[in-house]
Amino acid sequence: MMRISERFLEAVHSCEPVAGYTHDFYRYPARFSPLVIREAIRIFTQPGETVLDPFMGGGTSIVEAHLLGRNAVGSDINGLAVFLAKVKTTPMSDVDLGQIQRWAKSLNDELNLRNVVGRDMDWIETGYQRNISTKNTWPIRKLLELALGTLQKLQNRRQRQFARCVLLKSGQWALDCRKEIPTVGELRARIVEDADRMAAGSRAYAHALRSTGERAAHAICLHRSALGLESDRVWELNRKPRLIVTSPPYPGIHVLYHRWQIRGRRETPAPFWIAGMQDGCGASFYTFGDRKQHDLTNYFTQTEAVFKSLAALSSQKTVIMQIVAFSDPLIQLPRYLDSMTHAGLMEIKPEHVESRDGRIWRGVPNRKWYASQRGEIGASKEVVLFHRLQR
What we know:
With 391 residues, this protein is α/β, with parallel strands linked by helices. It has helices at 6-13, 34-44, 60-67, 79-88, 94-110, 121-125, 138-148, 157-175, 184-210, 270-275, 283-287, 297-313, 329-342; strands spanning 50-53, 71-76, 219-223, 243-246, 260-262, 266-268, 319-325, 345-347, 360-363, 381-389. Strands 1, 2, 3, 4, 7, 8, 9 and 10 form an eight-stranded mixed sheet that branches. It has a two-stranded antiparallel sheet with strand order 5-6. The longest helix is centred in the middle third of the chain and has 27 residues, at 184-210. It is globular and about 70 Å long. The two termini are 15 Å apart.
C-alpha cells in the first residue's frame, strides 16, 4: 500500500479550471489539473530530483515540476504539444513581454480585411487551412494570416514563438468547437486581451522560478516517441526519474490532439500552420490506433512496449503515476493492467481510498464530446494508477 495525503485526494477531486502561471496559454485536450500534479511531485520527489512526463501534452507537469525546483523532462510525439510546452516553460524578460504586448496592440491597425496579405501556397496546398476558408470563417483566417505576417517586427525567436502562441490561443477561441464565429473586431480585441493575460502569467512564472529558493532546475521538452526513451541522450546529463507522471492515450476514446473542430464535425490542422510546423498525421498516430479497431489490439501492444521503455528508465524508488480514462472500463482496465504487468511493473494501491476496487476515480465534467458512442459514460471518469518496478 502507498500513503498519500488528504491534500492529494482533494486535488484529484477538485473541479477548479486549469489556470495560473502559463497553464492557460492554450486549451490542450484532456489536460492534467495542476493541483494534482503539484501534490504528486511534492509527495514523491525532492528538489533537484527528476520528474518525467513521456506524454506531456500541453506541458502541465513540466511547468509544475520546474516551479517546484525539480528537473523536468517531457516528451511528446505531437510537435504542437512540444511547441506549447517550450513556450510555457521559457522564462521571458519584462523587455520581451513588453515588446509582445506592444506588437499585439499594433495589430489594431494591421488587421484590416482590406489589406493585401501574402498567401503561403505551400501551407494551403498541403491542407493546413482546410475548413477555415468558408463563408463564415475566411475573415478569421485572413486576420490570422495578416497577424502572422507581422511577426518579423519582433526582435528574437522567443518573442516570435510567444506571439505565435498568442495567436494560437486567440484562434482556438475563435474557431474550435464554436457554433457562432466571432466578428473581426472581436478577434482583434481578443488578441490584445490574450497577449496581456499571457504576459501576466509569464511574468508570474518567471517570478516564481526566481523565488523558489531552490537550486536552479531545468525543463527539457523532447519531440519524440516515448518508445525507446530510455536510450535518449538526455539521460547522459540527467539522473533517472524519481517520478514518472503522465496521462497516456485513452483506449477507445476519440481525442483530437492535433486538430480543431470547425462548426460541427469538420476538422482543421490550422494549429500547426499558426505554430509554424508540419504535422500530416492522423488521429491514430497519437492514440496508439483507431478507437474502432477490433479489440484495440494495437493500443495494448503499443502500451506494453512504451511502458517497457519506462520500466527500463526506472529504479526501485521510481513511482509511475498515470491518469487514464476508458470507453469501457470493465473490459479495458483489466487489459490495461495486464499490459503494465507484462511491461515489468506492479500496481500499488493507495491507503484509505473509499472505492470498491481501492483505486482513486475522479469525475471529468463535459467528457462526452471525446467519448465513442458506446463509451460515453465510462469515459466521463478517470482513474489514478500507481506502479513500481516488479521486485
